[in-house]
């Protein structure tokens, strides 16, 4: 037989979320297209924090970081996670109520963490924004979605924010 | 409001099909995930023929092409279209019966034709294989899905054949 029926009953769909409007749009697209009252898919929100900074006791200018500054930086990081997850919840909460949602917070290089997580949890689909904000950002950030599209084995959906059209 | 409900009632979903097993797998994935008895989406099968060959009267070795050869080449091209569309039909035919299907046969450079067609018919989603067959083919062919993912404005799904995992 040429092709098999690929629709599993329960799919695990990973959405890579970050602070960007684009990733929230990708989440919204994902929920609208992959979830309904009848589906029993699981939505996995994956947020990748930047690699833990190496807190040298001295900053670039040679001044010492106080413990307070380090704590503030760490708090900023966890505030960011909470803020992104809250924004995400505001989006998927509007849709189907019987949605199973998991949250994963990784840390490190986004493209590696995303690829590894998708592999590890045996995700069925990865949905992410494209970060197509123009040449400069695309060159820098677009490489995340490029890299994932090439390296992840499951289907990858790249969603662009309509304002970028 | 952060994000809008992106699920339109009727979506136009383009699947770029070609002779590859991978594109048939992408079609199967697409039908399994985007179509059900309840959806009223339209499936658009897009096949791109290579650019029409410039039939020089002389081939590379300087011999003249007879009219018969040219006719045979043209027939081969249309046989290929029919064969791909028949394989596609065997796949989507197994799914929901009330599926609206359109066929588009383009000609030219695949990446340009795909991007232009998606734009022209205002498609909601583009689904395509990745052609990730390994370094050499990826370098040559992967560029089609790369190019489309970057240039098409609607969400793009890149599906890999599981054997390539």
UniProtKB/TrEMBL annotation, chains A, B:
Domain of life: Eukaryota
Gene3D superfamilies: HUPs
Residue ranges of every copy of the UspA domain listed in the record: 12-160
A Pfam match: Usp
SUPFAM superfamilies membership: Adenine nucleotide alpha hydrolases-like
InterPro entries: Rossmann-like_a/b/a_fold, Universal_stress_UspA, UspA
Protein name: Universal stress protein A
Organism: Corchorus olitorius
High-level lineage: Eukaryota, Viridiplantae, Streptophyta, Embryophyta, Tracheophyta
């Amino acid at each position: 037989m040429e092709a098999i029926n690929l629709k599993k009953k329960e799919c695990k769909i990973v959405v890579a979320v970050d602070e960007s409007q684009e990733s929230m749009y990708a989440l919204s697209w994902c929920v609208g297209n992959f979830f309904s009252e009848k589906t029993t898919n699981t939505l996995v929100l994956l947020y990748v924090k930047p690699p833990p900074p190496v807190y040298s006791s001295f900053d670039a200018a040679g001044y010492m970081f106080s413990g307070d500054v380090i704590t503030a930086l760490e708090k900023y990081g966890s505030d960011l996670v909470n803020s992104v997850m809250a924004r995400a919840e505001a989006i998927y909460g509007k849709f189907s109520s019987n949605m199973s949602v998991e949250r994963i917070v990784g840390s490190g290089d986004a493209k590696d963490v995303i690829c590894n997580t998708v592999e590890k949890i045996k995700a069925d689909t990865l949905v992410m924004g494209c970060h197509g904000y123009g040449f400069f950002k695309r060159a820098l950030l677009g490489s995340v979605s490029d890299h994932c599209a090439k390296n992840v084995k499951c289907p990858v959906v790249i969603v662009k924010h309509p304002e970028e059209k």
